[in-house]
Amino acid sequence: MCRWLAYSGAPVLLQDLLYRPEHSLIVQSMHSTLGAEATNGDGFGVGWYGDGDVPGVFRSIEPAWNDRNLSELAAHLHSPRVFAHIRAAIGSPVQQTNCHPFRSGVWLFMHNGYIDGFHAMKRDLAMMVDPAFFSDIEGTTDTEMLFFLARTFGLEEDPQAAMARAVGAVEEAARHHSIAFPVQGTFATTDGETTWAFRYSSEGRSRSLFVSTDVSTLREQHPDNPMLRELSDDARLIVSEPLGGLRGAWREVPESNCILVRGGDLEMSPFEPELAAPVR
Description:
Layout: E1 3-13, H1 14-18, H2 25-31, E2 44-48, E3 56-60, H3 68-74, E4 78-86, E5 102-104, E6 107-115, H4 118-128, H5 131-134, H6 142-152, H7 159-176, E7 183-190, E8 194-201, E9 210-212, H8 215-221, H9 226-230, E10 236-239, E11 250-252, E12 257-262, E13 265-270
Antiparallel strand pairs: 1-4, 1-10, 2-3, 2-4, 5-6, 6-7, 7-8, 8-12, 9-10, 9-11, 12-13
Helix pairs in contact: 4-6, 4-7, 6-7
């Protein structure tokens, strides 16, 4: 599988976010403790929001622990909203266009998990993508296909409903191919202002997902922790696995739930697939 994190809050140096925690994403690229594989070395990607009209993206097929360009970039970039992903490929080639996060306009999207039977369903799913978006698909992954299905089903208007319809479309296609449990994973998307994260699998046994506790509460519990003093009150992290063992810092996202993070506000609600109307 893969590992990922989504950060929002006051601008943070990417180096502090990706390298500094005791169980950082860079450490997880070599020694994941909750992933299906301990090593996630089939490339990585970072997406961030800055001065441009669209987010910046840096993706590479190098292992995250061994990429000097990532280390150099991370030492100089600050951003208030960051997506980062380390990849363990399943089936699709190791190439830059298959590295997460994926970008379309102001949107970023990433995923840990897989669509079972994707090869058999690929044409069916591709035919559902709005022709206006189809030519923007660059890679060959199930994740990118799901992203553009979500765009097709209204990601810009209602991200949670769009993801419910996209996942529903995959499950409906899977039924025609006798695939019992097609969707597995945790997903995240953002427009630069709000982050949505989803934990869902057709089997009801999703990959791990955690969200950070309110920073002000953590400061009260751990007044001597220097890193907590540097974070803004509205800082939030959503992660595949905790970045450290600080007591009370993380809570697990329940199965079949969606998290919305806007500013310091966090909302959690049930997530279930919907049967989408055909695209015309």
